[in-house]
């Protein structure tokens, strides 16, 4: 009896696997057969080793390196439900990031597309994308960020004052700090109070929905994210209405877009005089885009930087010397000056080395908008093409001993496209200046005030699209 049951289970397993293989053969693009690589198991492909190694200390570098050794710089695979081509190297960077306009577009997962909305900067291409970048560039320029400098400086001091005498989870503190900065910058939200709490609660649900399964069913992360997005948009609708009617005036990012670049409600039709105007939907989609893009990456970068400094005392001491000198040059008070924050050369190198060593975004996902060729392989329109950034940042010819944390690598200019900490080309991070400003100010006050030690040794990484320490990097601080 038991043998019969076992035989039936074996036959059923063979049948199911056969169906999976047939389905995979049916759905695999025939033109992709010429690309070297393996598609792994039916349906799931190579997702399991990809996810497993993604959470390891070295991230997907091991996954990529094994396949590059076997297949070369260009290979195909099936991961996370997508047939995709991974490529690496400066030539691939040039093609995918700075190549002909319109050759590729950003390739968000379905959940991200739905949450951010169709008019998001991350979903537009060609002239529409250029126009959006131009309209939001001014408030995010170095000059445009001056008005937020004092808030960021004061918030850094207030945040660090609360670190003494308790266990600090750096990732959580960095998350709260960056979200308060962005909330104030975009719509003048105070760092505490009911509105701030609603804002943070909704944002957390939105952020967690990006890596969720695409089931819009009550109780799922995706459903909760969509509902939180709708509540966030209601907050923005109310604020936009007040700004337009003159009931409220603030010197923030939203105000600059409403007053200079916003169409009146209902003005959805574009005419010749509307080239520099945004609809309410465009305003909301792109404010949310800046919130999402500016929060997770800066949070991760700040956390990794503090972790790397704790693991590399000579780097910390040299960095502290730079900031102690800035502190000594101040006439009075704890606050930084604008000129001082723009004169931190070693800090800039430490930030760059953090972005290289951690490679917070391990790959840049694109979709071929037209046929093109790279390394002798023909890439077809519609294919998912991913630039493997982690291998570029671990190229030993450019970065000797790539696992070592060494800011002096940036003492001399690097070859173009060998460092992609903030991306490059038309999709370069628009918030690059804000991220550097936040991190530089926070690190100044941290190293001038505290030493710290980790409470546990754990190099595991969260299985999220943006690489963050799994244990949130718990520390205790000691005053200098």
From TrEMBL:
It is a single-pass membrane protein. One of its GO terms (molecular function) is oxidoreductase activity, acting on paired donors, with incorporation or reduction of molecular oxygen. GO terms for biological process: brassinosteroid biosynthetic process; brassinosteroid homeostasis; sterol metabolic process. Keywords: Heme, Iron, Membrane, Metal-binding, Monooxygenase, Oxidoreductase, Transmembrane, Transmembrane helix. Its main location: membrane. It is found in: Membrane. This is Abscisic acid 8'-hydroxylase 3-like. The lineage of its organism: Eukaryota, Viridiplantae, Streptophyta, Embryophyta, Tracheophyta.
């Amino acid at each position: 009896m038991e043998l019969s049951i076992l035989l039936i289970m074996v036959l059923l397993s063979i049948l199911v696997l056969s169906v999976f293989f047939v389905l995979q053969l049916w759905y695999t693009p025939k033109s992709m057969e010429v690309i070297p690589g393996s598609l792994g198991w039916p349906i799931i492909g190579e997702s399991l080793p990809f996810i497993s190694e993604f959470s390891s200390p070295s991230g997907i570098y091991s996954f990529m390196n094994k396949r590059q050794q076997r297949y070369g710089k260009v290979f195909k695979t099936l991961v996370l439900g997508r047939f995709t081509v991974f490529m690496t190297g400066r030539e691939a960077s040039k093609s995918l990031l700075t190549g002909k306009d319109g050759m590729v577009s950003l390739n968000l997962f379905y959940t991200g597309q739905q949450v951010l909305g169709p008019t998001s900067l991350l979903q537009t291409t060609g002239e529409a994308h250029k126009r959006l970048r131009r309209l939001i560039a001014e408030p995010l320029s170095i000059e445009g960020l001056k008005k937020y400098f004092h808030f960021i400086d004061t918030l850094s001091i207030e945040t660090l004052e609360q670190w003494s005498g308790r266990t600090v989870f750096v990732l959580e503190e960095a998350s709260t700090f960056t979200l308060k900065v962005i909330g104030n910058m975009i719509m003048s939200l105070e760092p505490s109070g009911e509105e701030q709490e609603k804002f943070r609660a909704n944002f957390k649900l939105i952020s967690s929905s990006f890596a969720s399964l695409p089931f819009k069913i009550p109780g799922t992360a995706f459903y909760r994210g969509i509902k939180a997005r709708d509540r966030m948009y209601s907050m923005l609708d109310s604020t936009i209405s007040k700004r337009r009617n003159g009931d409220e005036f603030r010197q923030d990012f939203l105000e600059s877009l409403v007053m200079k670049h916003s169409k009146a409600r209902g003005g959805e039709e574009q005419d010749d005089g509307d080239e520099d105007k945004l609809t309410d939907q465009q305003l909301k989609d792109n404010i949310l885009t800046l919130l999402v893009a500016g929060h997770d990456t800066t949070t991760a970068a700040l956390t990794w930087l503090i972790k790397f400094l704790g693991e590399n005392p000579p780097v910390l001491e040299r960095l502290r010397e730079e900031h102690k000198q800035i502190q000594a040059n101040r006439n009075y008070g704890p606050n930084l000056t604008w000129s001082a924050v723009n004169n931190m050369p070693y800090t800039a190198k430490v930030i760059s080395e953090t972005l290289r060593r951690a490679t917070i975004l391990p790959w840049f996902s694109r979709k071929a908008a037209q046929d093109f060729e790279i390394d002798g392989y023909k890439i077809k329109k519609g294919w998912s093409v991913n630039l493997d950034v982690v291998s570029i940042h671990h190229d030993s010819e450019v970065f000797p001993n790539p696992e070592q944390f060494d800011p002096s690598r940036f003492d001399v200019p690097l070859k173009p496209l060998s460092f992609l900490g903030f991306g490059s080309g038309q999709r370069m991070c628009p918030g690059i200046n804000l991220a550097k400003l936040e991190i530089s100010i926070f690190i100044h006050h941290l190293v001038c005030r505290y030493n710290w030690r980790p409470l546990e040794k754990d190099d595991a990484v969260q299985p999220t699209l943006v690489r963050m320490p799994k244990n949130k990097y718990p520390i205790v601080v000691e005053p200098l």
